Amino acid sequence: MGIEKNGGLLIEDAPYSKLYFEKESQSISSLVPSQSYHLGTFSKTLAPALRIGWIRADKKLLEPLIAYKEAMDLHTNGLSQAILNDYLCDNEAYKKHLILLRKHYKQKMEFFAQSLDKILPAFNYNRPKGGMFIYGSLPNIDSSKLIDKALTNGVVFVPAVEFYGSDKPSNEIRFNFSSASEEEIVLGLERIANLI
Prior knowledge:
Blueprint: H1 2-6, E1 10-13, E2 36-41, E3 53-57, H2 59-73, H3 78-88, H4 91-119, E4 124-125, E5 133-137, H5 143-152, E6 158-159, E7 172-176, H6 182-195
Parallel strand pairs: 1-2
Antiparallel strand pairs: 2-3, 4-5, 5-7, 6-7
Helix pairs in contact: 4-6
């Protein structure tokens, strides 16, 4: 791999890696463990309010980060860490929780995708293999202008311009399917269709 030969570092930001629907993918950072950081979080899988993430890396890579973190915030919330530590003492409980969460999110994704196909058939996307989002595009639509109208109609999504380094208009949208009910999904997509 070129990164090993050239002495570079890989940072793999993988907050959704445990939310796969069928098969877990190998982390890219595991291919170059001495030259990579693997970033994860319990916020997407267990409890958003805990705000606890983690980094897996070679010890020589972690040591400077610890000093930087202490300079930035002195310490991660001790109560949140204690709660998480207590919960993770029963590793089987967390494994079972992840299985249920993946099953639930897959069902939500399938419903969202079926609703998209029916209500917004022009939306071009691929069904995700995990996570909590469906990303795609609408032809001839500026998603930044559409979100302004959608917000005034009680609907929210993330326009693609938020993910790019420019203000160039984009027709891409990221929909989140994790917390809305089936009724809310249908209502939201119908409102977007009416706006279009």
